[in-house]
Amino acid sequence: MIDQVTLQVIREGLVALCRSMGHALSRTAYSPIFSEGFDFSCALFDGTGEMVAQAEFNPVHLGSMPYTVEWTVKEIGLDNLDEGDVILHNDPFRGGTHLTDFTMMAPVFYNGRLVAIPAVRGHQIDVGGSAPGGFPGDATEIFQEGLIVPPVKVYRRGDPVKDVWDLILANIRVPKIVHGDFRAMFGSLKVAERRVQEYCHKYGPDTFVEATEEIKNYSERRMRAMISALPDGTFEASDVLDDAGTTLDPVRVTCRLTIHGDTVTTDFTGSDPQVPGPINATYGVTASQVYTVLFQVSDPDMPSNHGAFRPINIVAPTGSVVNAESPAAVFGGNVETSSRIMDVLLACFAQAVPDRVMGACFGTCQNFTGGSQHPELDEYSIIYIYHEGGWGGRASGDGLTAQINPVGNDMNQPVEIFESRFPWLYEEYCINENSGGPGYNRGGLGIRQRLRALSVSSSINLIADRFRYPPPGTCGGRSPLASAGGHYNDFRVKLPGSAEFLHATEAFGTVSPSKFAGQVVPRGTVVENTTTGGGGYGDPLDREPERVAVDVVQGYVTIAAAASEYGVILRSDCSVDSVATLATRRRLRQNLE
């Protein structure tokens, strides 16, 4: 039996291996979405296809990648894997998420024995389909969203399969960039292969294989112990997405959480049927959010692998918006419905362990994409921007400000890098004042971003949400305030010659203000993306007046909102008028009774 010191050395080493994969990928990638945004994830699977270790990259990738690898192993077969093989796969209905998320994996052998399968999932900048850069907000079936690649070998015994590569790249608008990113993914797998073989050489293949199994068992024991410490019970919550993109009816996500002994069951029965729009989530997406939330409320040092998933049961009805069937459109399910799944899960856990959860975040990735001819570089370029917003307040403090949605763990693309690569000019990039949900601990704030189109014409696309329905507060906290236009998250454009910004429904005649595709705008158009903050945590009338005053000084809260939402009256120098504050809070509490 392997001793605990060796086990933990190998366990931490395999996590470091996954981090090294990611660093190699980011430093060799072609697109800023990889090199700057880190929209990829790296994990190591054992010789049976079960996840053993992962680095701290994108949660929605990492929780769903096990289903992709499992499906691949079953479809191709372990016996049909040879040294030097590399498999590529992006099918959402085979354990994937959405079509731009490609998973590349490669078996690692030691002395002819299959000992591990490293895998990397990365968001490619284009996948063909109707919308440059993806995210067609008006898609009604997956065939409009891009190229579907089932598990297929793109390297066979070390040699590239040219016909397969030619077929894939022929469907891509920017094949040089995408092929470069694929090669960066391939390089990361070679890093993992070398490191795994070093472990097998140092400890022996038998010890290495035993360690990978014991690592999973260790995580299972820790997860079961954590769940056992939670209060038993059944907790329910539901929330909605604004619309399906093709219709304006809200789309409901419902969850019933049952904690019993050392197991957790999440039952999404009651969620709406899948819709004719791009917000359907696959089972892998739903499972990923369940795992992510469980890790949020557990020990932060909990090792994340297949063993930790064993005590977690997931019920997601087939044909529903949380487990859609082909040929449903799914591009937004991975970024918008995933957020709502997380929101309802956190709302359930808030009833069980309120001190361990945060309020709902801004609730969108607000994915904005577009394609245009670069006027200076004379080449076709594609942009892909996901936007930061506010996270919910929590028992221990205010929510985080201007952070990527918690379903991901990505970074924004620096303005300087973006402007040097793409025909767009930043006119504004700032904090969205007053957007944090009021609470004893305030929700974090969102952002406002304005971009001017420099190309003669640009085709733009958007999939976003929480324009109509705000993120709720937690434990007495409140939702963020609506903007002057009545929205929370928001998107508007100002066309050349126009004096005002218009919503997409006004400017283009789209069905939804938050989901559309293929809208062509001329040079000089200014695009404004705005995100809201997170929900507040706890009663805002209990927030210390001095903290509210600091928020006003820092530009997070207006003087008017300090009075109306927090009951704090400030003098002209932003000092607290204690007498007026006491009277105002007394009056506001009476009005709430």
Write the layout of secondary structure elements.
Elements: H1 4-28, H2 32-35, E1 40-46, E2 51-54, H3 59-76, E3 86-89, E4 101-105, E5 108-110, E6 113-123, E7 152-156, E8 159-160, H4 162-169, H5 175-203, H6 205-228, E9 233-241, E10 251-260, E11 263-267, H7 283-297, H8 306-309, E12 312-315, H9 333-352, E13 367-373, E14 380-385, H10 415-421, E15 424-431, E16 447-453, E17 457-463, E18 490-494, E19 502-503, H11 504-507, E20 515-522, E21 526-530, H12 545-553, H13 559-566, H14 578-592
Parallel strand pairs: 11-12
Antiparallel strand pairs: 1-2, 1-6, 3-4, 3-7, 4-6, 5-6, 7-8, 9-10, 10-11, 13-14, 13-17, 15-16, 16-21, 17-20, 18-19, 18-21
Give structural notes.
The protein is an alpha+beta fold. Helix content is about 30%, strand content about 20%. It contains 14 helices and 21 strands. It has helices spanning about 5-30, 30-35, 60-75, 160-170, 175-205, 205-230, 285-295, 305-310, 335-350, 415-420, 505, 545-555, 560-565, 580-590; strands at about 40-45, 50-55, 85-90, 100-105, 110, 115-125, 150-155, 160, 235-240, 250-260, 265, 310-315, 365-375, 380-385, 425-430, 445-455, 455-465, 490-495, 500-505, 515-520, 525-530. The strands form 4 sheets. Strands 1, 2, 3, 4, 5, 6, 7 and 8 form an 8-stranded antiparallel beta sheet that branches. A 5-stranded antiparallel beta sheet has the order 15-16-21-18-19. Helix 1 (about 5-30) runs antiparallel to helix 5 (about 175-205), helix 1 packs across helix 6 (about 205-230) and helix 7 (about 285-295) runs parallel beside helix 9. The longest helix is centred in the first third of the chain and has 29 residues, at about 175-205. The radius of gyration is 24 Å and the shape is globular. The mean pLDDT is about 95.
